[in-house]
Write a structure and sequence with these properties.
5 strands, 27% helix, 146 residues, single chain, Cytidine Deaminase, domain 2, alpha+beta, globular, 4 helices
């Protein structure tokens, strides 16, 4: 079993202004987060293939298991908007953390390859690039059900 970190990949083919707009949307969504228990607000934004940006934030609950992560909020909002093809995910948090396992599984329901940019809100100019494919190896997907 490998302990190596996922490879850092910066996407090609996405206009820099679209990347910046997606990051800005994630940062703005973080400001709307409801995180009274953890004090750890997170914002996420998806860039669709047609250029739309759909954002989400984490929403905590006193019953912790009902807490909704920012990434899943963004995915659910995208589905409501009938947007299920994405080319970028931006996540803004303290420390620039990567998606939890549940969020990774939800994301691979729709795509196995997705560039992800992690933004540490204390240093937003420093970005870490990952790919969803590297974050969830040996995943369970809808292919297993066919």
């Amino acid at each position: 079993m490998s302990n190596s970190a996922p490879q850092s990949i910066e996407p090609s083919g996405i206009a820099p202004d679209r990347i910046e707009a997606t990051i800005a949307a994630a940062l703005a969504a973080r400001e709307a987060a409801y995180a009274p228990y953890s004090g750890f607000p997170v914002g996420a934004a998806l860039l669709s293939v047609d250029g739309r940006i759909i954002a989400g934030c984490n929403v905590e609950n006193a019953s912790y298991s009902l807490t909704q992560c920012a990434e899943r909020t963004a995915v659910q909002r995208a589905i409501v908007e009938r947007v299920d093809r994405w080319i970028l995910l931006a996540i803004a948090s303290r420390g620039g953390v990567s998606p939890c396992g549940a969020c990774r599984q939800v994301l691979v329901e729709f795509t196995e390859r997705l560039p992800i940019v992690l933004i540490d809100v204390a240093h937003p100019e420093q970005r870490r690039w990952l790919d969803l494919d590297a974050l969830l190896p040996e995943r369970f997907s809808n292919r297993a059900l066919s």
